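Submission checklist for the structure archive. All mandatory fields must be present; incomplete records are returned to the submitter.

[x] Identifier: DUF6594 domain-containing protein
[x] Organism: Cladophialophora yegresii CBS 114405
[x] Residue count: 165
[x] Sequence attached
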Amino acid sequence: MTEKNTIVLRRFDDVHARLLLSLQDEISQLEQELEKLENPTSSGSVSEKMLAKTRILRELRKVVAEYDHLFNTWSKMQANPASEATTKELKQWLSEPGTNAEAGLGISAQQNIQWLEKTKDVSTIELGDDEKAPSINKEKPHSEDSGRSGGGGFMAFFNCAGKRK
């Protein structure tokens, strides 16, 4: 039987794949612009090229960091797939009276069952009393000058509290 301290969440694999592909395309376009600028036969003054190159590199730094972060976060999420038993027990629990929107879950049992049909798109987080067990209630320590906002809960667990700069 699944413990009460198991959280089952969708990873939104299709969305993550689309976002990664979009970022990949953006990086490729910026990379092509950079290669054109670095070509010795490209037109423009040295100072114009340097300004354009600095702008492109600054943008690449942001987009590549976002790509890497999303890739790593999604990889962590995929490392915790929900077991068939957990998914089955959750479906049974959701079909019981009082476990739908009226119980404060915010969506109907039918909607819950629909997303659970994509069981390959579902991960679990095991919570526990053990210090080694991850907890959505623990705040991940971060330095003041890290440039990131927030830090507690789910976002800290998956290290996804950062924002695109």
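[x] Structure attached
Curator remark: Residues 37 and 49 are 6 Å apart (CA to CA). The beta strands are 6-10, 122-126.
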